[in-house]
């Protein structure tokens, strides 16, 4: 199903045509669906490769970022990350750039795959710490690396405010939108972040965290990769159980203001996801609602 007005379709026939046209050495390999997110559609190619196709022209910028920066950042990280092995170019078959990555074995982080949530939270914190400590390698916060999640909340206040209004108008939505708005506004009222800008993954939700034998093995989907302030980086920890969240807090050593701004980001991004994808992507809406309910349940913990 198309999620965006300007979406470019990419089914198995498109993938096979691209292989014949640009990487004929792989055209005999099997092709099978490997999931689709809000920004990309994926196909497994044989046993060892993954084809990644952006849904829109705007998403194509994320593909270029991964191709350029992941090989340079990988040596600085304590886990596996996607390894681009082919940079596809636009063609009459598919008018956007696209990628082939090496396949990484693993399962999405969840109740059936993680053995110890406290250890998982600490391991995730170490990945974040190492990423934020990685050298910028000449990268600057502009162009494709100027993602909004690396800036301050106030720059996005208008758009997020509209998302709260849209959620409040959804009939049958069992959610305390007013309380969520209060939590967002409390973060918005804090001083803006300061300090050095760092590398940010931008979307460390469970579906982007792969587990093997109960432990964190890989971080995938660097499409939101940016340079900026780290507040929003911590937002997805509300997608994890409380014990993982506490372990992450302890390991990263966040101050109360940063934690409150991170929570405000977590609220705002999830609310915007609910309002935008309400009728088109129910599975993603469910993820957003799960996060928001976890935030409401833990709102008075700190």
UniProtKB/TrEMBL annotation:
Pfam families: APH (PF01636). It comes from the Bacteria. Residues 31-265 form the Aminoglycoside phosphotransferase domain. This is Aminoglycoside phosphotransferase family protein. It comes from Streptomyces tardus. The lineage of its organism: Bacteria, Bacillati, Actinomycetota, Actinomycetes, Kitasatosporales.
């Amino acid at each position: 199903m198309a999620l965006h007005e300007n979406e470019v379709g990419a089914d198995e026939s498109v993938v096979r045509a691209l292989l014949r046209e640009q990487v004929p050495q792989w055209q005999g390999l099997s092709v099978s669906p490997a999931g689709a997110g809000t920004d990309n559609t994926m196909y497994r190619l044989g046993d060892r490769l993954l084809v990644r196709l952006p849904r829109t022209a705007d998403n194509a910028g994320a593909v270029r970022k991964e191709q350029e920066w992941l090989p340079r950042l990988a040596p600085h990280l304590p886990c596996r990350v996607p390894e681009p092995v082919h940079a596809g170019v636009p063609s009459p078959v598919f008018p956007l750039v696209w990628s082939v990555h090496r396949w990484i074995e693993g399962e999405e982080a969840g109740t059936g795959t993680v053995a110890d949530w406290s250890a998982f939270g600490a391991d995730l914190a170490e990945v974040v710490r190492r990423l934020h400590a990685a050298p910028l390698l000449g990268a600057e916060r502009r162009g494709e690396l100027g993602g909004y999640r690396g800036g301050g909340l106030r720059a996005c206040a208008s758009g997020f405010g509209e998302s709260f209004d849209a959620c409040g108008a959804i009939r049958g939505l069992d959610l305390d939108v007013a309380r969520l708005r209060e939590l967002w506004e409390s973060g918005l009222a804090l001083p803006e972040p300061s300090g050095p800008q760092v590398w940010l993954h931008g979307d460390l939700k469970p579906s982007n965290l792969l587990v093997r034998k109960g432990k964190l093995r890989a971080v995938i989907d660097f499409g939101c990769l940016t340079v900026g302030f780290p507040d929003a980086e911590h937002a997805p920890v509300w997608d994890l159980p409380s014990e993982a969240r506490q372990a992450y807090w302890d390991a990263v050593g966040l101050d109360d203001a940063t934690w409150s701004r991170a929570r405000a980001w977590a609220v705002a991004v999830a609310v915007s996801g609910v309002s935008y994808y309400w009728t088109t992507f129910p599975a993603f809406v469910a993820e957003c609602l799960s996060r928001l309910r976890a935030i409401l349940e833990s709102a008075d913990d700190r």
